Amino acid sequence: MLLFAPGNGRRPSQQDKPVNTPNDKSAPAPATNFLKNIIEGDIERGTYAGRHFDGTPGDAASQANAPVDVAAIRTRFPPEPNGYLHIGHAKSIWLNFGLARDYGGICHMRFDDTNPEKEEQEYVDSILDAVQWLGYTWNANGKSHLFHASDYFDFMYRAAEYLITAGLAYVDEQNAEQMRANRGTLTEAGKDSPWRNRPAEESLRLFAEMRDGKHPDGSLVLRAKIDMASPNINLRDPAIYRIRHAEHHRAGDKWCVYPMYTFAHPIEDALERITHSICTLEFEDQRPFYDWLLARLAEGGLLARPLPHQYEFSRLNLTYIMTSKRKLKQLVDDAHVTGWDDPRMPTIVGLRRRGYTPEALQLMCERTGVSKSDSWIDYSILEGALRDDLEGKAARAMVVLDPLRLKLTNWNELFGADPSEPCSAPAHPHHPEMGTRTFNLTPEVWIEREDFAEVPPKGYHRLSPPRAGADGAEIAGSMARLKYGYVIRCTGCEKDADGKVTAVLAEIVPDTKSGTPGADSVKVKGVITWVSVTEGVAAEVRLYDRLFTVPHPGAGEHDFLLDLNPNSKRVVTAWVEPGLAQAAADDKFQFERHGYFVADRKDHAPGKPVFNRTVTLRDTWQK
Ligand code: ATP
Ligand code: MG
């Protein structure tokens, strides 16, 4: 089912239902990846065996003397350094680096920095950081495979000159409007430019003048000479070089002509001896030009064979988020979030700060597979992958988010003047090797406000005071267990002048301490979490939720900002188990009953704990 063809401008509508959404709870079937079949076939047939390459990108002449490539395949991750990476990029990183690793190949980290205006060092740094955090490296066999497309500008210029000389490119003097008008339509052939058949010498001279800064932006453009009647509009003499009087963040002001993406990208792949050039589906129509260009340059002896081949897969689309850089930037600029690394952002830095792990993101990528059919992945798949990863790893802790004081009124009878009774709990219920947490039960503890009800609803198993039943007879106060501590019986509550409950009163039932013989002689259905009033630590807890309330924010052309979830962040002062005072930034926990939380990597400090809710224990959005 095709829900959303990227590049055709159609936005998904509210009716679009997510597909490819394996049930969160059941073990997902291994997802398919058609690229693996292609690579395995190529390896079997030896399509790329015997290529020469020493790890230094270069033209045919320089490759000829290089040794046989040590890598079975070469892939690349080629971001444009014009923004922060998002979860869609994580899929591309997982795919390219992962395939290289699985098949004895090498994945190149390449900055596709051919567009001078929008690129910045800040983005370069954050991209490298993100790839490494996700668990990948561009170093192999003692060599770095970090490349910059801007290093190939000299070759690209030479390649363009060759095309002109070979009668395969020309300088066009039509303005943008004329070019558009003459391009034709899907049903109508285009019209040849009046400059199409000018002599090669004339184009060569003009191209040199373009490079030398003799012409203003947009006045001349170099076009490939292919076929103005081609049914594929991308082959109707595409522009390959344009004038841009702009400073480049690496090349400085050396150039005032810059290659178009469609010209630069295949050349970058070929110079780096990429075998499998993997991109998203919107580039499918560009593949004929990719092949045309590389074949011509190989015929001219400029590029070594075998040439790279482009494969397309469908991009990752997740419900409840958006990955458009422009819209993400708007969220930051208009202060709907606190920055690119706001824990609600679908950026890698945001997900990391939210408490996502590289393993969870990999799991999500594996489960959603690689295909050519466009689909929406339900956000719950991402959250499910995180729960599955953290379940076995995160230490447990007791935390009270909405505190109500509980007074244990028979303390002195049981413990005398002793102000504390030691309790312990495993750090993880299934991993004894993770150790034991210790904390004290004290005469007053914090419990969740929702764990007390003056008039309990049906089926309520937590604390409620003695009260008169329908027949007038007294119903005893309810019993529940303080987790890892004693069974208690509720005896009443205290209220302020407005009738608001300010404290719950209860008695400890003797000889019921967890872990002692006979502890479960008194059976109770309710178990409640608690934190000592005197020993607990106050913490800022940021309760994050989805940033948007609808699966397809902005669908139907309305303003996506209208779909922002007003409750995507709620900050509370919580009481946390004393051991959490020692947590380091980035440490992840399961707060029992509440979900997974992480010590905020920016704001958490010893003595001033700050935790972010990463995800709740269960999906509360499923209808
Ligand atoms: P923009 O067009 O907004 O600048 P982009 O997604 O094209 O963003 P690039 O920096 O060109 O950004 O992307 C680097 C690589 O990541 C490309 O190969 C691209 O195909 C891939 N990629 C980007 N978004 C996704 C996605 N949602 N799913 C899978 N791959 C993606
Ligand atoms: Mg792009």
Describe the structure.
The protein is α/β, with parallel strands linked by helices. The chain has three domains: 1-313, 3-Layer(aba) Sandwich (Rossmann fold), CATH 3.40.50.620; 325-391 and 539-615, Ribosomal Protein L25, Chain P (Beta Barrel), CATH 2.40.240.10; 397-535, Ribosomal Protein L25, Chain P (Beta Barrel), CATH 2.40.240. The strands form eight sheets. A seven-stranded mixed β-sheet has the order 12-27-28-29-25-26-13, covered by helices on one side. A seven-stranded mixed β-sheet has the order 23-20-21-22-14-17-24, with no helix packed on it. A four-stranded antiparallel β-sheet has the order 6-7-8-9. The longest helix has 16 residues, at 87-102. 42% of the residues are buried. The model is unreliable at 1-26 (pLDDT under 50).
Summary of the model, kept short:
This protein has 623 residues and is of the alpha/beta class. It has three domains: 1-313, Rossmann fold (3-Layer(aba) Sandwich); 325-391 and 539-615, Ribosomal Protein L25, Chain P (Beta Barrel); 397-535, Beta Barrel (Ribosomal Protein L25, Chain P), CATH 2.40.240.10. 23% of the residues lie in helices and 21% in strands.
Number of helices: 14
CATH class term of the largest domain? Alpha Beta
How confident overall, as mean pLDDT? 93
Rg over alpha carbons: 32 Å
CATH topology term of the largest domain: Rossmann fold
Please tag this protein with its features.
Rossmann fold, Ribosomal Protein L25, Chain P, binds adenosine-5'-triphosphate, alpha/beta, 623 residues, single chain, binds magnesium ion, seven-stranded mixed beta sheet, 14 helices, 29 strands
